[in-house]
Amino acid sequence: QVHLVQSGAEVKNPGSSLKVSCKISGGTVNSYTFNWVRQAPGEGLEWMGHIITTLGLTNYAQKFHGRVTINADESANTAYMELTSLTSDDTAIYFCSIGDFLHWGQGTLVTVSS
Amino acid sequence: QSALTQPASVSGSPGQSITISCTGTSNDIGSYTLVSWFQQHPGKAPKLLIFEVTKRPSEISHRFSASKSGLTASLTISGLQAEDEADYYCCSYAGSTTRYVFGTGTTVTVL
Q1: What is the pLDDT of residue B33?
Q2: Any chain A CB within 8 A of the CB of B90?
Q3: Which of the four, A80, A94, B70, B91, has the lowest number of CB atoms within 10 Å?
Q4: Low-confidence residues of chain A: pLDDT under 50
Q5: Is residue A10 within 8 angstroms of chain B, CB to CB?
Q6: Is the alpha carbon torsion for A114, A21, A65, B24 positive or negative?
Q7: Four-residue CA torsion sign, A58, A60, A64, A70
């Protein structure tokens, strides 16, 4: 059974960068497309981007272009999402998901505050 | 790319059926058969209920069904149960530029 475990909650300063990890067990990172979805407090779901690891391709939502980078490390069996130039609007729970959104990580709460 | 439009809330009594609509555009729901539905309980990750418009993952109850017509997709929950009280989101593929767009979300209340 595939299982995704994300890194822990973080508090970041405005202007800094964030990197969230998503470790897969019961499967290999190179077999899946990893989607990243975020949810601001009390708000809906928002797709940020994904990496198609089998092709080595990434696609990002236009809203995050230039600020987000998604990659995967085969040796760590882990995917990563990095978001730069953080503002308070980036305060959210960040989720990774694979298998056309069948499997989800537990979410990582990121708070951006000075 | 704007979010797909869902009603903010839908309610029903136990045992009843309810339907949640999800309206998009010709750039997303109207062009692709890649509509998914998710259930999300407070503090939890979303759970996939429906994929490719009408298909259910094996572990999902037959009480959940879905369809699509034109620019609107719909999720029906039959035999409403207390555990169905949650937020529900639709999601559609929206082409090679936008990729995926989610709905605004619907809170289901079991009366």
Answers
A1: 95
A2: no
A3: B70
A4: none
A5: no
A6: negative
A7: negative
pLDDT (0 to 100) of residue A99: 84
Question: A2, A45, A52: which to substitute to probe chain B, counting the most B Cβ within 10 Å?
Answer: A45
**Judged by CB atoms within 8 Å, which residues 13-42 of A form the interface with B?**
35, 37
Surface-to-core class of residue B62, CB atoms within 10 Å of its CB (0-12 exposed, 13-18 middle, 19+ buried):
exposed
Question: What local confidence, expressed as pLDDT, does residue A53 receive?
Answer: 93
Structure confidence by residue, pLDDT tens digits, B17-76: 999 999 999 999 999 999 999 999 999 999 999 999 999 999 999 999 999 999 999 999
The helix or strand, by DSSP H or E, that contains position A48, with its residue range, turns out to be strand A45-52
Residue B96 pLDDT greater than 90, yes or no: no
Q: Is A64 helix (H, G, I), strand (E, B) or coil?
A: helix
pLDDT band at B97 (very low <50, low <70, confident <90, very high): confident
Tokens of B11: 């309610």
- Chain centre distance of CA A59: 13
**Residue A18 tokens, joined:** 């964030």
Q: Pairing mode, if any, of strands A45-52 and B106-110?
A: unpaired
Q: Tell me if chain A has a CB within 8 Å of the CB of B37.
A: no
- Check CB contact of A104 with chain B, cutoff 8 Å: yes
- Partner-chain residue, chosen from A50, A100, A106, that has the shortest CB–CB distance to B51: A100
